[in-house]
Amino acid sequence: MAERGRARGRRAGGRAQSSSPRRPERTRRGGRRARLRRGLSATRATGAAKVLGLSTTRRAALAAIVVGALVFTLAVPLRTYLSQRSELAEYEQRKAELEQRVARLEQRKAEQNDPAQIEAEARRRLRYVMPGETPYIVQLPEDRTRAEQPPPGQRSVPEGTWYERLWDSATGR
C-alpha cells in the first residue's frame, strides 16, 4: 500500500493535478543558457534595478535628468569659451591691421627723412620755387567750377534775411 501511495503521489503531484502542463526539462535549460549568454553586465543592471526598486521608465527618467544636468553644467562654460575664441580672433585681426599701419607709417617716416622727398612735397603742397626758377600756374575751367562749389558735406549759406528769402520765394523771384 505504501508503494501504491507513492506512485499515485508522484503522478498526482506532477502533471495530473496541475492546471498548466509542466515545462520539459530542455526548455528550462535553454532559459538558463540564455541568461548566461546575456552576460554579467545585464545581470548586474537587473540586480541594481531590483536593489534600487526602479522600473525601466524610472531608470530612463533618471538617466535623462543626469544627462540634462550635465548639459546645463557644460553649457555656460562652453558659451564662454566660444565667445572668448571669437574675441581673440577679432583682437588678432586688429593687431595685424595695426602692425600694417605701423609699417606704413615707418616707411613714410623714412621717406620724409629724404631731402629729395621733402623738396618735392614743398613744391607740391606749398608751391615753393627754387631760386632762379620761374613759376607758372595754369588754371583750367574745371578748376574754377570746383572752387566755386562748396565741398561735399557743407551747405551753402543763402544770402539775405529769412523774411526776404520767404518773400522772394512767395513772389517767384
UniProtKB/TrEMBL annotation:
<dbReference type="InterPro" id="IPR007060">
    <property type="entry name" value="FtsL/DivIC"/>
</dbReference>
<feature type="region of interest" description="Disordered">
    <location>
        <begin position="1"/>
        <end position="40"/>
    </location>
</feature>
<keyword id="KW-0472">Membrane</keyword>
<keyword id="KW-1133">Transmembrane helix</keyword>
<keyword id="KW-0812">Transmembrane</keyword>
<feature type="transmembrane region" description="Helical">
    <location>
        <begin position="60"/>
        <end position="78"/>
    </location>
</feature>
<feature type="coiled-coil region">
    <location>
        <begin position="81"/>
        <end position="115"/>
    </location>
</feature>
<dbReference type="GO" id="GO:0051301">
    <property type="term" value="P:cell division"/>
</dbReference>
<keyword id="KW-0131">Cell cycle</keyword>
<feature type="region of interest" description="Disordered">
    <location>
        <begin position="140"/>
        <end position="162"/>
    </location>
</feature>
<feature type="compositionally biased region" description="Basic residues">
    <location>
        <begin position="29"/>
        <end position="38"/>
    </location>
</feature>
<keyword id="KW-0175">Coiled coil</keyword>
<keyword id="KW-0132">Cell division</keyword>
<dbReference type="Pfam" id="PF04977">
    <property type="entry name" value="DivIC"/>
</dbReference>
<protein>
    <submittedName>
        <fullName>Cell division protein FtsB</fullName>
    </submittedName>
</protein>
